[in-house]
Design a protein that fits this description.
With 647 residues, this protein is α+β, with helices and mostly antiparallel strands. It has four domains: 120 residues, Glutathione S-transferase Yfyf (Class Pi), Chain A, domain 2 (Up-down Bundle), CATH 1.20.1050; 60 residues, no CATH class; 150 residues, Neurolysin, domain 3 (Orthogonal Bundle); 236 residues, Neurolysin, domain 3 (Orthogonal Bundle). The chain contains 26 helices and seven strands. The strands form two sheets. Strands 3-4-5-7-6 form a five-stranded mixed beta sheet. The protein binds zinc ion (ZN). The site of zinc ion has 4 residues, from helix 16 and helix 17.
Length: 647
């Protein structure tokens, strides 16, 4: 039943073959998965191993179908293909729901005798039975029917919610002199129209530099308000429905709330622990937050002596201004060193060296758009997987930055394949874009290195969801090292970025970490609280929680929740980012900052954390790597340390 040939990457179609490809591929995978699951239920006596192998075979098909439909729904340039892929995504998730509620199937697996199984197989069995119980398989038929309806509806509503964010690109038109403060290449890229105005959109390549550099406070605020109002009002009702669907699901499964249900399978464990974590970080961050916020406010008062506070449209601008003036870091000076092509090459060199792999370009490989570059990941003679880099914005494409699975890696059977989907500019980049690229690449490398697993359930980024960000957050540290940055950060004349500039950037980066943590706790509290008690007026809750946790003020008549895309995928677990950061800081403490490529530490990290995928609990992986359990200590020290002014 298991194929044992040398695995080769997917053969993606070219030209207009995509619709047929998606349809055939997904339909075939689902049909095979169904057949395999039917075989499992045919009452034949099977060994425990054979039962799990059949289950795994079906699981591989289901994941393949889901990955392919999932990525193409977000990236394919042809709207028809995206729509088709979305439709197949719904079929896949319906299939997964039915599988989870299939009592006969559950009984087959529940009857498996675990005593003869090896550790990994026993773990698979235990996790699979837990998944079944969390689906509600042991509930009455009425309840199972209702759970099925809820899941189906939640998929559709979730897709609508995300699509509205993706499709609602807003813009403002302003007089060209209001671009004052922006880099010249940005100004050149925004020519004046027939009315003598320039258009700025809410897409990242416009909104991020504009928020950061535009001196005109009113224009900054206007674009920011448009940005915060994306997908509003249409997503207001969708979000309310989504929250109700989740609450009902959790109740039917015997949990007090959605956060309790969701947290059960995460490192954090319970909804209450999320609330405690948010309070713990809020308190821990408070001194640093107030200290640095006060500096921002004083700076703003030089522009506007009457100002008593700062709202969200001022956070990026004044943070940048203080970094420039007090730490002598000028982001425009910095960005001269980061040309997209060189950064991409540098990223591959750095991570290749760190993880002991090589990225071999596959220029002939088909992909969904000419912008996409394809590489095979090799370790010595062995091909480990394939990656697709889809890094620039285009119409109808996913608006944020993320890694998408293209195929799940199965040892000896199929290669892990994944795509990085970002919205980076084509020429010069901000250093923050460089950091984003390293971060997202961390997920991709985790997917590939963790993809040598027998069981699909544990392949790739299959670890607890609240650990998922830690490897990526740790990899960001490599985008802050002077020597590493100088290896690919060269200006137009080929001069590498000076080490003392990077030292100043590092000091400047430390500025604002406290108020940044407070803004993150606002998001975390919003994601948690909305799921705990769905309010009638969601906007009022946004305002209330921003006032409580964030140091920046809420702006009237904005509706951040409508475009808070994480509410779809992360649900009540936005705290994940900060939780992971606590662990990332702890893991990074094992590296010598003076020798960040030390192969002994790097390879231990690769083998003990990344390559394990989900085949052990994250807390154990981290303990194996560190030689002790994880702690808050490194994070607490980092947060408390004041930024050192070097200017
Ligand atoms: Zn991430």
């Amino acid at each position: 039943m298991s194929e044992s040939t040398t695995p080769v990457p997917l053969d993606l179609p070219t030209g207009d073959g995509w619709a047929t490809f998606v349809r055939d591929r997904v339909d075939q995978d689902l049909a095979q998965a169904r057949e395999l699951l039917d075989t499992l239920k045919d009452s034949t006596a099977r060994s425990a191993e054979d039962t799990l192998e059949l289950w795994n075979d079906a699981d591989i098909r289901l994941r393949n179908a889901g990955s392919l439909a999932g990525v193409l729904a977000q990236v394919h340039p042809d709207e028809e293909v995206r729509t088709l892929a979305e439709d197949r995504e719904q079929q896949v998730s319906r299939f997964a729901t039915d599988r989870g509620l299939d009592r006969a199937l559950y009984e087959v697996l529940a009857a498996v005798e675990p005593s003869g199984l090896d550790e990994q197989a026993a773990r698979l069995l235990e996790r699979t039975l837990r998944d079944f119980r969390r689906s509600g398989v042991d509930r009455s038929e009425d309840v199972r029917d209702r759970l099925r309806e809820l899941a189906e509806r939640a998929t559709v509503v979730g897709q609508d919610f995300s699509r509205n964010i993706r499709d609602d690109v807003r813009s403002i038109r302003i007089a060209p002199e209001r671009l004052a403060g922006l880099p010249q290449d940005f100004i050149d890229g925004h020519p004046v129209d027939a009315d003598g105005l320039v258009t700025l959109t809410t897409d990242y390549p416009d909104v991020i530099p504009f928020r950061t550099f535009a001196q005109d406070a009113a224009a900054r605020r206007d674009l920011f308000v448009e940005f915060q109002n994306r997908a509003w009002p249409q997503n207001d009702a969708l979000l309310a429905e989504l929250l109700d669907l989740r609450a009902e699901q959790a109740t039917l499964l015997g949990f007090d709330s959605w956060p309790d249900f969701d947290a059960e399978v995460k490192m954090i464990g319970t909804g209450t622990a999320i609330a405690e974590f948010i309070e713990r970080i809020t308190t821990l961050a408070d001194p640093a937050a107030r200290r640095d916020f006060d500096v921002l406010l004083k700076r703003r008062q030089l522009d506007d002596p009457a100002a008593t506070t700062l709202d969200s449209s001022n956070s990026a601008y004044y943070s940048e201004l203080v970094r420039r003036e007090n730490f002598d870091v000028d982001a425009q000076e910095v960005r001269r060193y980061f040309d997209f092509e060189r950064v991409q090459t540098g990223l591959l060199d750095v991570t290749g060296r760190l993880f002991g792999v090589e990225y071999v370009p596959v220029p002939d490989a088909a992909a969904w758009h000419p912008d996409v570059t394809v590489y095979d990941v090799h370790a010595g003679d062995e091909r480990l997987g394939r990656i697709y880099l889809d890094l620039h914005p285009r119409e109808g494409k996913f608006k944020h930055a993320a890694q998408f699975d293209v195929a799940t890696g199965i040892a000896g059977r199929q290669l892990p394949e994944g795509s990085l989907v970002c919205n980076l500019p084509r020429g010069l980049m901000e250093h923050s874009d460089v950091v984003t690229l390293f971060h997202e690449f961390g997920h991709l490398v985790h997917h590939v290195l963790g993809g040598d697993q027998r069981w699909a359930r544990f392949s790739g980024v299959a670890t607890e969801w609240d650990f998922v960000e830690a490897p990526s957050q740790m990899l960001e540290e490599w985008a802050w090292d002077p020597q590493i940055l100088a290896s690919f950060g060269l200006d137009a004349d080929g001069t590498p970025i000076p080490a003392e500039l990077v030292e100043r950037m590092r000091a400047a980066k430390e500025f604002g970490k406290g108020y940044f943590a407070r803004t993150q706790m606002f998001y975390a509290a919003l994601s948690y609280q909305l799921h705990l008690h769905r309010p009638d007026d969601i906007t009022a809750t946004v305002r209330e929680l921003q006032e409580k946790y964030d140091l920046f003020d809420y702006i009237d008549d904005t509706h951040f929740h409508a475009s808070f895309g994480h509410l779809e995928g992360y649900t009540s677990a936005y705290y994940t980012y900060m939780w992971s950061l606590v662990i990332a800081k702890d893991m990074f403490s094992a590296f010598d900052p003076k020798d960040m490529f030390d192969p002994i530490v790097a390879h231990r990290y690769r083998d003990e954390v990344l390559a394990r995928g989900g085949n052990a609990d994250a807390a154990d992986l981290v303990a194996n790597f560190l030689g002790r359990p994880y702690s808050f200590e490194a994070f607490g020290h980092w947060l408390a340390e004041a930024p050192v002014r070097v200017s």
